[in-house]
Every structure is written in structure tokens, then in C-alpha cells.
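Thread: quick sanity check before group meeting

JM: Hey all, I'm pulling together slides for Thursday and realized we never actually wrote out the predicted structure for the chain we discussed last week. Dropping the sequence here so it's in one place. If anyone has concerns about the input, flag it before I start.
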Amino acid sequence: MSMNRLEEVRQRHQRAEAGGGADRMARQHSEGKLSARERIDLLLDEGSFEELDKLVRHRCRNFGMDEQVVDGDGFVTGHGLIHGRQVFVFAQDFTVFGGSLSEANAQKIVKVMDLALKTGAPIIGLNDSGGARIQEGVVSLAGYADIFLRNTLASGVVPQTSAIMGPCAGGAVYSPALTDFVFMVDRTSHMFVTGPDVIKTVTHEDVTKENLGGAMTHNSMSGVAQFLAHDDQDCLQSIRELMRFLPQNNLDGVPRTATQDPADRTDRELDGLIPEESNKPYDIKDVITRVVDDSCFFEVAEHFARNIVIGFARMAGETIGIVANQPAHLAGCLDINS
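JM (edit): ok, ran it. Output follows.
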């Protein structure tokens, strides 16, 4: 390979890493959001990320798109380690065409999903996308169909986790809603089928982005999201913590963690936690944290249907799932949400 060709490859790598450029990256940071590559670096164990299809380019030549070609096409995909265990990951870069899905970058996602299924490893998607790339029309929509298919094939086989880390709309939220766990970032992430402007045009209703698809809306009202993070760093750290409790796939055992918590310990305060009066409430989380290893309880869907408490913990080092009635809310009785 000639030096000119080598230099061209180096420049393409640099352009792929630059994404939409310094100005758009600065705007991303000013909005309290990290770039796609920064997010992956925080999510994965240091130095473990192996990128795939870094130099892929879109093939659209309509509407002036032949003059707007970015290496990587706005999505970063690959595999790496979390706590030493393999995961496959993709991250959408909002600085490149608003993180929109094209035929080319849809194939990048499909590839890592196929590899995750073949190797039995979890899939993590970091979503920051406006939806389908309108310039590509139905070809872009076909890319979503390929992704949705793999969401259903992977369901119950490998864990699928999604993080909504920006203003995601349309197809960019259909896929996350099919996955096992959905994280959202307060104030900077939104997920909706169509945005407030479309709602106003069609139904003449005025609704804010936060009320329509904000993080608290989906955590407390719709139940689509199970985790609420304060910022990008908190979101990515929470995903890393979740992965400590999950098996790699449906044939794998749950992870074990050494504990200094004695198996034969007793807790006298448990005797008095439940009131003698049957109509007096108490917090079931106080019971859970006193029973499990190291008082560590990783709650799922904390803000939704608070009359039921679910989550992960450990006993004697073994990962367990917990489902408990919560007497402190609706007397712990079940309703449709719980």
C-alpha cells in the first residue's frame, strides 16, 4: 500500500473520531451530553473497546447527501468488557445527521446484534437519535425492521439494555422499548413516537417535550423506562452496576460475588420492623436491605407502580431477583401497573 493510501486511511480514521466536528461536539457538551465515544469509554473497562466498521459510509446520493459523507456514518459499534465480561455495544452520535439511522449504519447495528447472539453476550445500545434518515426514505425504515427482528430473536436469549441519552423519536425508541432494561437521563433525554410539534398539528394539543416523553414521565407514568439517571456519567455507571447481576445469556449461570457478610448473622431489628397493627404501613425496603448481602439492593423500576418493589440483590454471593409488596404504598396491593 502506497504512502498516499496509508495517509488517506489515517485521515479517514481521524474524521470518524471527529464525528460531526468540533462545533457540534461543543454544542453536545454545552447541553450536558457526552459524545458517543466518550460514553463508550465510560461504559466499558478501560482499553477494552474493539471498534467494528469504523470507516463505513452511507450510500445515499439524493438531496445533496453525496456531498455530506462522514466516515462511520454517525454510529460507533463494537465490543468490549464490563467487569471483565464481554458485551457488544453501539452508540449513536447526535453530531452526525442528528444520529439518524441510515441503511449503512443500521447494518452496523445488525452486525453487532448478530455477533452478540452467536457468542452469547449482552447487547447495550446508547441511543441519541432523531429517528430514520429522511433523505433515504423507505431504505432507512427497512433498517429498523432488521433491528426489530433481532430484538425479538435476542429476547430471552441475551440481555438487551438501552440507554436513552438524547432526544430520541420514532424508530429510535421502538427498538429500545423492545429491550429488557431502559435507562433515561433526567432533563436531557426524551423518547416519543412523534414530537410535540406533530402532536400540536394533528390533535391541536400543547404538550412539552418533558411531559410527552421526559425521563420522569416514562419512569413514573408509562413504565417504559426502568431507571432514571442524573447525567450521562450516572447513567453509564448504573448500566455497569446492572451488568454485575445479569448472566451473559440464557445458558449461563448468574455471577457470583464474594461477600464478607456472615451467612449466620442475625438482625434483632427485623423483629420489630413489621408493626403489630395490620393496618399500619412499613417500608419493605428496610426488610430487604437487612436480609441481603452487604445491604445492597439494586432496585428496578423504582418510580413506577411503587406498591410493588422489584430488583436484584445477592445472598451468600449468589445473584437473586426480588419481588415484594410495598405496604407503604396502596397497602402493597396489586394493580394493573404493578
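AS: nice. The two ends are 62 Å apart (CA to CA). The chain has twelve helices and twelve strands.
JM: adding both to the slides.
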